Every structure is written in structure tokens, then in C-alpha cells.
Amino acid sequence: MIKAGIIGSAGYTAGELIRILVNHPQVAIDFVYSTSSAGKPVHAIHQDLVGETDILFSDKIHQDVDVVFLCLGHGNSKKFLEDNSFSKNTKIIDLSTDFRNKEEKHSFVYGLPELNRKNIEKANFIANPGCFATAINLALLPLAYAGLLKEDVHVNAVTGATGAGTSFSATTHFAWRDNNFSAYKAFEHQHLSEIGQSVQQLQEGFDHKINFIPNRGNFSRGIHCTAYTFFEGVLEDANGMYKRFYATAPFTHIVEEELHLKQVVNTNKCLIRLQKFDDKILITSVIDNLLKGASGQAVQNMNLMFGLEESLGLKLKANYF
After folding, report:
1. 65 lies in which domain range?
2. What CATH number does the domain containing 43 carry?
3. Which ranges constitute the DSSP H helices of the chain?
4. pLDDT tens digits for 190-240?
């Protein structure tokens, strides 16, 4: 059994991660670290886990675990690893932004399996992708692989309230979020750098703009992304190209029908639909921001790192009604 430790245990991604791992046939959770909640049952914070596990929060870190998941706020993972050490055999999967930038000198592999599966299989340290970045990368990478991103890309994506985490702010209160919709960080969202890196990895020399408008929706979870760009080919060819690119990806599927979030919420899937309008291709992608956009993908990466079936423990059903 793989012994797993979880750091930063009170947030949404930690709750989802625990929910997956307590049902994973090859994992035993060794500790869930929290100094403020030590001794309390995990289900005192993550109340959906009542009856699922009797694990208690701990203020002790075991250095010899097989894998550690860092579910810390952005900027805190680096500091935590500077202050704490693990055995040379411990694999680390970080769910923050801290190690996603290739320009910084570190040994973390960018953990998008559809892009870096072979490197992930050999890696000891994984930088788990951001939620918007996952949805947008999966929408664009087949075009980049074919060298067909020839002009600017325009992206509009909407995320649910859980994308902001559990910390309170003016835009996370129910009274503000309910019956509301807003854009934020237009053209400067922090996930743009990792999206650009991924595109350039497959289409070297790509120097066009990715114009990204992120939006807040008045629902709890999920990301609905639409992207369009110049495309000369026909729709049939584009569908074939995308299906070939994702032929070995167990969670990314190309569909022809209109997409909506209830198809993917509570699953690790990404669904993609292509449409052609004159000289433009429109790509729609939908994911659950907490699963394929965070904790589910982290477990997918863990499976690859330990030589397990990629989808093990992740055959989750959509909450359709």
C-alpha cells in the first residue's frame, strides 16, 4: 500500500483529495496535517466524510511516507519544503502555483498527464496544473501539436465559487455571489504563464497572444471554457485530430453534442466539443475545477508515478440531477 500524507488539510482540494484516497484500493492515508485542528476528526471540517473515515487531524509529520500532497495556499509550498524535509524516496505533489513556472530552477514536472505522461511516470516531484489552465490547455494542445495555432487565441471561461478557495472575501459571500456574474483579472490571470508554456512545448515558436477573460459564476463547482482561433481546415479533420491526440487519455473525451457542467461535476473528466464557424474553430471544454482541475488530477499523477493504472480510484460518477 502507498502511504500518503496531506499538508494543508482544511481547504476544498484537501477535502476532495481525502474523499478520493479513502476509497483508493492502493492507498492508506498516513496523516492529515493540521496544527489548528490536531486531534479532531477529519469529518469535523469535511462533513461529507462522516461515515467514510475515522482519521484524525495530526500535528505530526512522518518523513518516510511514500507520497505527500501539498494543498497549501499559493506561495506557501516553497516555504513549507524549506522548513520541513522528507525521505529521499518520498514523492511530492504540489497543488499550488509555486513550482509550475519552468523559468525557476527546480525539479518539479508539470503534471498534465495528457501532455507529460512519460515524464510524470519518472518524476519524484509534480507541480499539479491550475484549474483554468487544465481546461484551456486541453482545449488547445491538439492544435499546438499540429502547429495550427497561427493567430491569437481568445478564451472565455467561467468557474464556480469553490475556485476561490475557503478564505472569505467580498466576492465569495453568498449574498454577493448568488444571482450574480462577473469578470476578473482580464488578460492577466496567473494561469496564463503555464498555459503559454504548455502550448510552446508542443508548438515551438508560438508567439501569438492568448487573450483570456476569466469569470465568476454563481454555482459551486465546475469550469466552462470556450476558446476560438483561426483554423483553415474542416470540422471532420479537427475532430479526428483531437481524437487521435487524446486516444490514450482515459479522462479526456471528444463529443459532438452541446456541453454543460453537470456532465463532469464530481468526475475527473474533461469533455471537449469542436465547432467550425467560417475561418474559426470554437473549442468548448468542461471540467470539475476541484477534481480534474485539482485533486483528481493529483491522484491521476500519483497513479502514474507509482506505476498504477492511471484511472485507479478515479472512476467517479457525475452528479447529473
Report:
1. 2-128+293-305
2. 3.40.50.720
3. 12-21, 76-83, 113-122, 131-145, 174-177, 192-202, 235-245, 295-305
4. 778 899 999 999 999 999 999 999 998 888 799 999 999 999 999 999 999
